[in-house]
Specification:
heterodimer; A: mainly alpha; 52% helix; 0% strand; rod-shaped; B: 567 residues; mainly alpha; 2 domains
């Protein structure tokens, strides 16, 4: 059903080549932290303006 | 619109489409046609994912939603970053490892052909209908306010998108998305700046935000557990998580955007780009709508924003009386708002509370007259379109923006319509070619033949979408119509993938019949219960998983050969 496999993809453990991050888990944690911060800021925004 | 607006509008929209067609006119490789250029970087992937999701409805309906109901709709997107993390960690590596063209090939490898076709069929049904809505939504609004023939707008938009999508496939889609997103960003920033400049002297952003907040438009967060409420933190996080996971993980129009590209890293970073920016972007668009509400509280505005519809029916004294009452109520509301702003600045708590109560009462009166206007409209003609919030932003664009900017903002609407429709058509063509046609017709020796077949299917879906937009009637709230349509089908589709990924002992027959039963259950519930539609994502997924486990318990165990095919 599929064509020839692609060259081996890099594994989860390899660094994402993003400055400041050693692993993909670190990138995901950063994004999750950003999400929590955005929700917190929206909560504060609601409290200030509503 | 004057000549400058036309030059900006046609120059950007036709220019981008022509550029996309020209640059990709020599595509002969099926891989490039269906998955895009193999050297695509994360920026292009990220913008393409964003442009696919942001249809014209996003930029017409969402400011209207902010105007009418406030910014609480932003919670709808709370599940999105979490879903994208899961897509990055689980779905994307799997698709690249299996080297698939479509998400549904994975179901075929993991289960069997009938389950693959069930998944692909659910996608074609849902996305095929949605493509028609995507073309229709901006066309009905733009044709109404500008007086252009609706059919002409639908056909022109459809033909433009068909030409470049059929020519260059996924590569043309990604290429044009970059430029379309640039137009969209420039236009929306322009609109926000003009809106802030048009606010009365001394009010400014902070003052307008305080007025919007006092009038109940800035409640972004609602922790209510009431299941009948459409937008709360919980529906956003849980329902939104399942909706986004289904959309980004299993909907080919999104999967096609990130499975190509230079490497796994580029795809992941493109998705993380969206995980970081999506909620702030939607917040900004909703905030624009809430600030439009304040702007129109302090400026003359029609009692009903769809003026074409209003003028078509407003023939007798009842309508004139409503207009007079509304003008009087707006003047009182403006005085009350100014009085509240002065009271607020005076640091006199009692005066501020009294002025706030007067402002709320005046605002309620204006709202009541608007409701009466809609009721009178429907009483005069039951088929009249009584919802006007989708017309608020376009009214602002046409009446408040300078020439040139009007053309740019109309280009935003068309760019958004083209970008999301192009992704849909490319995905529909790819799924039909790979998951249905290719099953009976192995790859030809000459790859160019397969590209021609894919082009024909893409063109056919384009014609279907245009025909559906021309001949079907749609729900009034178009953004909700798309989300409701997605929520009805996405849950089961996601359920198929969750079973495939995490329940290895479940076989093809069990999951197939579980999927069919779960889809029937969701449809019955949707037509018989009053439940927030985001919950159907969770219900469909959970039902598919539960039925799969139950059926597998009574069906014969999976054959060893089938076990070996597990992805």
């Amino acid at each position: 059903m599929t064509d020839a496999p692609r060259p081996e993809e890099r594994s989860e453990a390899e660094p994402p080549d993003v400055p400041g991050f050693r692993s993909w888990r670190g990138v995901y944690l950063f994004v999750f932290g950003w999400f929590v911060l955005v929700v917190a800021l929206l909560t504060v925004f609601t409290a200030i303006f509503s | 619109m004057n000549v400058t607006d036309w030059v900006v509008l046609l120059g950007t929209i036709v220019g981008i489409a022509a550029y996309g067609s020209w640059r990709t006119r020599h595509v002969r490789s099926l891989n490039t046609y269906l998955r895009g250029n193999a050297s695509t970087g994360w920026g292009t992937i990220g913008l393409s994912v964003m442009a696919t999701q942001a249809s014209a409805i996003t930029f017409l309906s969402i400011p209207g939603q902010g105007f009418e109901s406030g910014i609480g709709f932003v919670q709808n997107y709370f599940g999105l970053p979490l879903a994208l993390i899961l897509v990055c960690a689980v779905f994307l590596p799997m698709y690249r490892r299996l080297n698939v063209y479509t998400a549904y090939e994975f179901l075929g490898q993991r289960f069997d052909e009938k389950t693959r076709r069930l998944g692909a069929g659910l996608f074609l049904l849902q996305r095929g209908l949605a493509a028609g809505v995507t073309i229709y939504a901006p066309a009905i609004i733009i044709s109404t306010v500008l007086g252009w023939p609706l059919d002409l707008v639908i056909v022109c938009t459809g033909l433009l998108v068909i030409v470049y999508t059929v020519t260059g496939g996924s590569e043309a889609v990604a290429l044009t998305h970059k430029w379309q997103m640039a137009v969209i960003s420039a236009g929306m920033v322009t609109a926000m700046v003009v809106l802030l400049l048009r606010l009365p002297d001394g009010l400014g952003f902070a003052g307008a935000a305080h007025v919007a907040g006092a009038l109940g438009k800035l409640q972004a967060i609602d922790f209510s557990l009431d299941p009948s409420r459409r937008y709360t933190v919980w529906t956003g996080v849980f329902g939104g998580l399942f909706l986004s996971l289904s959309y980004f993980g299993t909907d080919q129009s999104q999967v096609q955007r990130y499975i190509g590209g230079a490497s796994l890293r580029e795809g992941r970073l493109g998705l993380m780009f969206n995980a970081v920016l999506k909620i702030p972007m939607q917040f900004a668009i909703l905030l624009l709508g809430a600030l439009l509400f304040v702007f129109y509280q302090l400026a003359p505005h029609p009692v009903f924003f769809n003026q074409a519809e209003w003028l078509r029916h407003a023939q007798d004294g009842r309508f004139r009386a409503i207009e007079t009452q509304h003008a009087s109520a707006v003047a009182q509301s403006q005085s009350a708002i100014r009085a509240w702003l002065q009271a607020r600045a005076s640091d006199d708590a009692a005066r501020e509370a009294s002025a706030r109560a007067a402002m709320l009462a005046a605002s309620d009166r204006t709202r009541a007259i608007r409701a009466e206007a809609k009721a009178t409209l429907v009483a005069a003609d039951p088929r009249a379109k009584a919802k006007d919030s989708d017309y608020v932003f376009i009214t602002f664009i046409l009446t408040q923006l300078p020439h040139g900017a009007v053309g740019l903002l109309l280009a935003v609407m068309f760019a958004a319509a083209l970008s999301s429709t192009a992704s849909e058509l490319a995905a529909l063509g790819a799924t039909t070619t790979i998951d249905f046609w290719r099953q009976r017709h192995p790859l030809a020796a000459a790859e160019a033949h397969d590209v021609r077949v894919a082009r024909r299917f893409t063109a056919l879906w384009g014609v279907f979408a245009v025909a559906f937009a021309l001949f079907a009637g749609f729900a009034e709230n178009l953004i909700e119509a798309i989300n409701i349509l997605g929520s009805i089908f996405y849950g089961v589709l996601l359920g198929l993938f969750v079973v495939a990924l995490f329940l290895r002992r479940v076989g093809g027959s069990a999951v197939f019949f579980a999927g069919v039963t779960a889809q029937a259950l969701v449809l019955v519930m949707y037509f018989s219960l009053n439940l927030g539609y985001l919950w159907y994502n969770l219900i469909g997924c959970a039902a598919c998983i539960a039925f799969s486990l139950a059926l597998q318990a009574v069906l014969p165990p999976r054959a060893p050969a089938a076990e070996g095919r597990a992805g």
